[in-house]
């Protein structure tokens, strides 16, 4: 290729700033084979979530997913961490989405930025060159943080997230594989030192201390599952119905970081802190209209409704009891009904024979054979039957 790649690289950096890319770096298309032992050990230990790309070889070797790759361009976009305004106070308590799900879906935003950048590169390099590109974000084959670290965007912290000097870990990451041989940037070294704040702050102790985590125990993962959430994790999510920010909030590198560079990332307070009770019966049409643009909607409404039920119990919202009883009686989904059973009992501190009868009748209507659903009912009924009498009872 008879192209001045160093000159092109500088032109790309300049163009990226005009596009609204907050940070850009370049690395080789060499493999990431050094990560294999760790990834194999993670899977063997049962720490993976299933959301990862399932072909490990493709995760580690750009040669397997791109013909004759020469470089990878990594980009980062900084996202807001604080809301300019809070949602109005209403009769209902509210949940919240983690910050990475504020504003429009970051997958869409990053893809648009990378598509524009590729167009700019093609214009800068002349159209007669046979340059090729493969953009990806999050759901692609490569490991975003590994690419970004090697491209010099930042270092991988103990929480497994990329930490940049300018924006902390509050960044979205994407990368573009290309056959252009750019001069690589210098990889970033870890700067966590002896700090253990994220490790000690993680409620389920999901962080292993070396940048890896037990994904099965991560609260962000737990909020995205579709089945029953294990009872251990339910109090830990508090009122967060999607994601988790704890390991970012406590990180010293994130102190004071709050950037508002992209209008499409700005949160709508009423959407990112939704009323919980109305969420229980939201229609598919309303859900898509209100929450569809968020990254946190990708699993559909069922996990968010399940999490909303858990959040109502965690918030001790007694006013939600009639709504939860209606869910038990009318919702067609066993997981949602069973979660509501748990929440109702959590919100009932004293013996209540009428409620026992109601739940026993609900259990009798359960005509499926999922033992986890039936156990949820039976455990809740046992707990309710062992409640003390109300102190004002005759």
Distance from N terminus to C terminus (CA atoms, Å) equals 91 Å
% residues in beta strands: 5-15%
Give the topology string: H per helix, E per strand.
HEHHEEHEHEEEHHEHHHHHHHHH
Q: How does the major sheet shape up?
A: 4 strands, antiparallel
Overall average pLDDT:
96
Globular, elongated, flat, extended or rod-shaped: what is the shape? elongated
Number of strands: 8
Number of helices: 16
User: What is the percent of helical residues?
Assistant: 25-40%
Radius of gyration, whole Å: 24 Å
Strand order of the largest sheet: 1-2-7-4
Query: Unreliable segments (pLDDT under 50, ≥5 consecutive)?
Result: none
Structural class comes to alpha+beta
Number of domains: 2
Task: Give an account of the 3D structure.
- By secondary structure, the chain is of the alpha+beta class.
- The protein has 2 domains: 1-274, no CATH class; 275-394.
- The chain has helices at residues 5-19, 36-44, 56-60, 106-125, 144-150, 197-201, 219-222, 246-249, 269-272, 276-280, 284-291, 301-314, 321-330, 334-346, 353-365, 371-385, and strands at residues 23-28, 71-78, 96-97, 133-136, 155-156, 162-163, 171-178, 240-242.
- The protein has a 4-stranded antiparallel beta sheet, sandwiched between helices. Strands 3-8 form a two-stranded parallel sheet.
- A hairpin with a 5-residue loop joins strand 5 and strand 6 (162-163).
- Helix 12 packs parallel to helix 14 (334-346) and helix 13 (321-330) packs antiparallel against helix 14.
- The termini are far apart.
- The model has no long low-confidence stretch (mean pLDDT 96).
């Amino acid at each position: 290729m008879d192209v001045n790649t160093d000159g092109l690289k500088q032109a790309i950096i300049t163009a990226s700033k005009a596009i609204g890319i907050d940070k850009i770096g370049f690395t080789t298309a060499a493999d990431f084979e050094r990560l294999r032992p760790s990834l194999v050990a993670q899977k063997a230990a049962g720490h993976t979530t299933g959301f990862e790309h399932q072909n490990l070889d493709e995760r580690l070797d750009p040669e397997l997913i791109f013909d004759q790759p020469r470089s990878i361009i990594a980009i980062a976009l900084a996202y807001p961490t604080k809301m300019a305004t809070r949602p109005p106070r209403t009769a209902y308590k509210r949940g919240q989405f983690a910050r990475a799900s504020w504003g429009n879906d970051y997958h869409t935003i990053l893809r648009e930025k990378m598509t524009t950048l590729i167009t700019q590169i093609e214009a800068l390099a002349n159209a007669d060159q046979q340059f090729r590109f493969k953009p990806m974000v999050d759901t692609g084959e490569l490991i975003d943080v590994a690419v970004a670290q090697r491209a010099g965007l930042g270092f991988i912290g103990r929480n497994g997230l990329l930490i940049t000097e300018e924006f902390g870990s509050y960044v979205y990451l994407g990368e573009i594989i290309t056959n252009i041989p750019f001069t690589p940037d210098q990889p970033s070294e870890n700067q966590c030192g002896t700090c253990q704040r994220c490790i000690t702050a993680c409620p389920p102790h999901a962080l292993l201390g070396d940048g890896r985590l037990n994904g099965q125990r991560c609260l962000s993962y737990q909020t995205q599952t579709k089945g029953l959430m294990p009872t251990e994790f339910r109090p830990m999510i508090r009122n967060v119905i999607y994601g988790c920010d704890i390991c970012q909030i406590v990180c010293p590198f994130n102190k004071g970081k709050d950037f508002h560079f992209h209008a499409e990332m700005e949160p709508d307070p009423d959407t990112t802190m939704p009323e919980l009770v109305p969420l229980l019966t939201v229609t598919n049409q309303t859900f898509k209209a209100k929450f569809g643009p968020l990254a946190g909607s990708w699993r559909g409404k069922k996990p968010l409704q399940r999490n909303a039920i858990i959040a109502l119990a965690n918030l001790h919202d007694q006013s939600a009891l009639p709504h939860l009883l209606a869910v038990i009686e009318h919702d067609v989904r066993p997981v949602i009904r069973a979660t509501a059973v748990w929440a109702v009992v959590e919100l009932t501190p004293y013996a209540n024979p009428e409620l026992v009868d109601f739940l026993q009748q609900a259990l009798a209507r359960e005509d499926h054979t999922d033992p986890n659903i039936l156990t949820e009912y039976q455990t809740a009924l046992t707990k309710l039957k062992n409640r003390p009498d109300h102190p004002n009872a005759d």
